[in-house]
Amino acid sequence: MLRIGLTGGIGAGKSTVSAMLVDHGAALIDADRIAREVVAPGEPLLDRLVEAFGPQILDANGVLDRAALAAAAFVDSEHTAILNGLMHPAIRDRTADHFDRHAEEAIVVHDVPLLVENSMTPAYHLNLLVDVPAEVRLARLMESRGMDRADAEARIARQADDATRRAACDVIIDNSGEIEATREAVRRLLETRIDPFANNLVAQRRAPRPALHLTDPSDADWSGDAARVIAKLRHGTGERFPIDHIGSTSVPELPAKDVIDLQLIVPDLESARSLAPRLAELGYPGRELSDHLGEGEFEEKWFHANTDPGRAVNLHVRTEDSVGACFARAFRDLLRIDTGEKERYLELKRDLVAQVIASIGVDGEATSGAAADTALAHEEATNAYAEAKEPYFLRMRRHLVPESFD
After folding, report:
1. Domain range spanning residue 365?
2. Count of the separate structural domains present in the chain
3. Same domain for 221 and 247?
């Protein structure tokens, strides 16, 4: 199951986008609907709320009067905590029930207005933001819902701002224009990312590697991408393992292949083996592999890669005292502070990319032929490029981790 979190500010049009996804075949779990379900007449939670806040929170028909509940629960922090202590577990458990009902679905979309505000994004494979600037949402609320300006502004102000939402989500869907533009954006997203992601996840198959090409860091958000992936991995593995952003994309202002390299540290290789199925569920299938240390030396690790075709990730699972782990951190830290070495490394990378493309005959931007042949060519080019850097890494390891040669 591909778990998608869907959010957006009030008035952004989440229901419009969720309906498009449902039309495509996705199952929908609506957080607002669940919040109403758990307090419906006959639900145990409603009785607990009456016990806590009194019968005045019900109307004449025994239905929850939300305004009366708010008046009773938000008088002070103690009463608010009581409300949250009752509501949150009930909503959490009912949401889990809904996910269980959809366990066989390929794609499940969870529509959550406060996805970002409640720090829920790490629980999903992919987070979609229906994005409309606050001033446009304000106008929509006043025009379509008949709100007065003060009420609409107050509701918008109680939610996360636009920048915070954008930083927390993986995909931004612009819904500020015509409905057909939004429909086309959703169609492209489904075709190029969501459907392949879901299929790869089921097959535990990594997405094809991108073309061998150095991307300008100003055209990417590598630190943000890495932070979002790390948050998902930490949440999905129970916050048990340190995870670092390493490699060229972790070095500010260094052009690099558009691949996020991460390093997850385990106490031993048996832990890496035991962790592999969970990482596959999170979207990172892997296998046992070795770091090439140079001079005929190899060191065991586990290597995992992304099923999401929209974000290439190399996840190296290494032990804390391994040479590979020590060198990855030391080399990253050196490039962050040594401008001269960073420039030398960049010159080497550019030369090697050109050499590999020339020798293999792969265009870094586009390749003709069938998709499978293109993917294999890109894989071959990437592997050749990595191998060509090994002599340089050997020299740097002698400098940065000399004890590894004792």
Report:
1. 217-405
2. 2
3. yes
Residues 157 and 26 occupy one common structural domain: yes
pLDDT of residue 11: 76
The number of angstroms, rounded, from the C-alpha of 344 to the middle of its chain's C-alpha atoms is 33
My answer on whether 15 and 77 are in the same domain is yes
Residues 171 and 264 in one domain: no
Q: Which residues contact 32 (CB under 8 A, 6 or more apart)?
A: 111, 113
Query: Residue 293 pLDDT > 90, yes or no?
Result: no
pTM above 0.85, yes or no: yes
pLDDT digits (tens, 9 = 90+) for 101-118: 999 999 999 999 989 999
- Report the length, in residues, of the chain: 406
C-alpha span between 174 and 182 (Å, rounded):
7
**Angle between helices 390-400 and 371-388 in degrees, nearest 10:** 40
In a domain, 210, yes or no: no
Instruction: Indicate if 190 and 288 belong to the same structural domain.
Output: no
Q: Note whether 25 and 161 are same-domain residues.
A: yes
* C-alpha dist (Å) from residue 156 to 70, 114, 127, 399: 18, 12, 20, 54
pLDDT of residue 365 exceeding 50: no
Phi and psi at residue 33, to the nearest 5°: -65, -40
Q: What angle do CA 356, 347, 401 make, to 5 degrees?
A: 95
The Cβ of residue 38 has, within 10 Å, a number of other Cβ atoms equal to 20
Nearest to 398 by CA among 323, 332, 346: 323
Do 225 and 185 fall within a single domain? no
Q: Identity (one letter) of the amino acid at 154? A: A
pLDDT digits (tens, 9 = 90+) for 297-310: 899 999 999 999 99
- Domain membership of residue 270 (yes or no) is yes
Q: In what order do the strands lie in the sheet with 126-131?
A: 27-30, 107-111, 2-7, 126-131, 171-174
Q: Are 46 and 191 part of one and the same domain? A: yes
Gyration radius from the chain CA atoms: 25
Separation of alpha carbons 62 and 406, rounded Å? 78
Q: What is the pLDDT of residues 163-184, one digit of tens each?
A: 999 999 999 999 988 999 999 9
